[in-house]
Design a protein that fits this description.
The complex is a heterodimer of chains A (58) and B (167). With 58 residues, chain A is mostly helical. Chain A contains one helix and no strands. Chain A starts with 11 loop residues before the first helix and ends in an 8-residue tail after the last helix. With 167 residues, chain B is an alpha+beta fold. Chain B is built from five helices and eight strands. In chain B, helix 1 packs across helix 2. The longest helix of chain B has 17 residues. Chain B is globular and about 45 Å long.
Chain lengths: 58, 167
């Protein structure tokens, strides 16, 4: 897909808002990933401690 | 976004990259786990995606070059499947954003990469905080000059500085 360069140039405030939104989405993604892998690690730990080593949580 | 093919990634990737149904994930020889994903950007000018990269368990990386090589393989597959622009906003967790931005662009400064991509790393000084943003665009884009012009124009509004790296 090619660019649509004819759109009016963004203001400084609009660019800052764009970056801020990107930063917030990245932070939300990182939080979600941390939670997801924390749950995975917990399940693996529990499986190992239970003695059922053949349980696969990944 | 077109889905990435992990078989193609793994043809040259030093670490095995898996798709877990949501994310690309790889584990290093030192036991570090990295998650990789792409998030659609909202800029009004050209189609772009933000690259998300996470050292999942926050363990210290021992300067493993194979991590960079694996990420390059993933990004190359991204460009094989999507002729869009890739953006990267550096994590601000420990105040090392500037180093991360430079490192990220250096990964794509290799001779082979330069043949195919143009990359930039820029500093954007906003109200009370500074963001470090990197951009990679495939040279095959017919509107590449316009994309770069637009990106540089907007960055110039902030600090009158030229891009830190230009290829």
């Amino acid at each position: 897909m090619e660019a649509t360069m004819l759109r009016p140039k963004r203001t400084r405030e609009e660019v800052l808002a764009w970056l801020d939104a990107a930063r917030q989405r990245k932070a939300a993604w990182e939080k979600r990933i941390d939670e997801k892998f924390s749950v995975r690690a917990k399940h693996k730990r529990e499986a190992a401690e239970s003695g059922y080593y053949d349980l696969e949580w990944a | 976004m077109n889905k990435l093919n992990t078989d193609r990634i793994n043809e040259h990737s030093p670490y095995d990259v898996e798709y877990d149904g949501e994310l690309l994930v790889f584990t290093t020889a030192h036991g570090l786990v990295f998650a990789v994903d792409f998030d659609e950007d909202t800029n009004p000018y050209f189609p772009a995606y933000w690259l998300n990269l996470r050292n999942v368990y926050h363990r210290t990386s021992p300067g493993d070059k194979q991590v960079a090589q694996t990420v390059i393989c993933i990004v190359e597959e991204f460009f094989r499947q999507n002729n869009d622009v890739l953006l990267y906003i550096c994590s601000s967790e420990d105040g090392h954003q500037a180093q991360r931005a430079r490192l990220f662009v250096r990964w794509f400064n290799g001779a082979e990469q330069q043949k195919h991509y143009v990359s930039r790393s820029v500093e954007v000084k906003g109200e009370g905080k500074t963001e470090y943003v990197a951009m990679i665009a495939p040279r095959s884009r017919t509107d590449l000059e316009q994309v770069l012009l637009k990106f540089d124009e907007e960055i110039a509004m902030f600090n009158e500085m030229k891009p830190q790296e230009e290829i």
